[in-house]
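Structure ticket #2291
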Amino acid sequence: MLTIVATAFSTGGQGVFNVRDYGAKGDGNTLDTAAIQQAVNACSAAGGGQVRLPPGRYLSGTIRLHGNLTLWLDAGAMLTGATNLELYSGFTLTNREPRLATSRWHRGLLVAENADNITIAGHGVINGNKVFDPRGEERMRGPHTILLGHCKNFAIRDISIADSANYAILFFFSDDIEVRNVKITGGWDGVHFRGSPQRGCRNVSIIGCQFYTGDDSIAGSYWENVLIQNCVINSSCNGIRLIGPARGLLVQNCLFYGPGLHPHRTSNRTNMLAAINLQPSGWEPMPGALDDVLLSDLTIHNVTTPFHIVLKKGNSGGTIRINRVSASGIYRAAASVENWSDLPLTNVVFRDVTMEFTGGGTAEQGRQPIRPPGVDARPLPAWAFYVRNVQQLVLDHVRVICEKPDMRPVMIADSVGQLVFESFKFPSIDGVSQPLVLTNTAKVVRRE
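Resolution: structure written out below.
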C-alpha cells in the first residue's frame, strides 16, 4: 500500500526581496516582468529567501524561479499574465520529453526547471488572464500559469489561481510536490502532471483544494505515490482523469459535483463528465500498470458516471478498491471496469457503495452492442455496472437505485474469473427478466 511523504521544507534563505524595491509598480498597467525577475535573481544570488509581492496588480510575462526560494503574494496582491505572447517562454531543454524543446504549447507565466526547494504561497491571486493564442492548441490556448520540469520539493499553498490561459499547474518528471489549500477557478486543467515509463512523478499530495475548472480538475500520467484528499472538485469535464499508468493512488474524502461553474472554453458546455476516469493509454499508448488504487469516502453528484476504469493494450491492472461512496444524479453511463488489454486486471472491490442513476433506459438500448471505449464514458446496455475481463470482482454491501424504471440489465459481466456478491441490492423492475447478464464468468460466489 502506498506511503504518503509530506513535503515540509524551508527555502534555506533568510532575506526578503520586495519586488517594489527592484522597480515593480503593481499598478496593473506597467509591465513588471523585469523588476520581478531581478528580485528573483537577487534572492537566488543571496542563497535563497523570500520574494515578496505586496498588495497591487503586477502585470508580467514569464518569470523564471530558482531553487531555495519562496514566492510570497500578500493578500491583495495579484500577479497577472500579460496579453503579449512574445513575453512568454518555456523549457529550454529536457531529456525525456523531446516535444518540450520545440512545442509552442509548453510556455508558462511562472516557470521552474531543474530547481529544488521552491514554495509559492501567501493569500494573493495568480491570474492567467485568459491569454488567447490563435496559434495555440485548439487555436486558442495560451501559456500555462505554473509550469515545472525536473523539480523536487515544490509546494504551492493557500493562493488562488484564476482564468488560466491553459493549465493552472503543469509539471513533468518532478517529485515531492505539495498543492495545499489552493483554489483554482476557470481555465482548462487544474493540476496536470506527467512522467514517462522511465521516470514517473513521485510523492505528490493535493490536499484541501477547491477546483472549479473548465477542463479536467486533476489529470496526468505515470504517477507514483499520489494522495488526493479533502478536495472539492467541480468541473465541466472529468473530475480526475488519469491517462497513463499509476501505482499507489489514494483519493480520499472528496466531493465531486456538476455541472461545472465555469464552462469548457472550447465547447462552452458545463455538464460534468466522469467523477473519476482512470484510463491508461486513453489518448495514446502509455504502457505500464494501474495498481494499488484506493478510492475512499467520496460523495458524487450529477456526473455522467462515478467511475470509468479502462485498460487498453499494453496496460495491466492489480488491485483497485472503491470504498464508502455515495453517488447520485448519474445521468449517462454505468460504472464500468473494463479490461481491453491482453494483460490481466487482477482484483477489483466495491465496498459500502450506494449509487443512484437517473434511469429511463429502454429494452432496445439494452440490446445494443458494446463498442470499445473512447476517451470519455459512453452509454452502455446496462444501467449500473459493466465489467469486462477481470480476474476477480467483489461487490460487498453495494446498493444501486434508478429514479425512473430502466429496462436494461442492472449489470453485464463478461469474462470475469470470479464474481463475489456480498450483499448486492438492486430494484426489481417489471419486464426485466434478466437483471444480471453474466457471460463467460467462471465462478459466482454468493455470501448474502
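Closing remark: The chain has one domain: 15-446.
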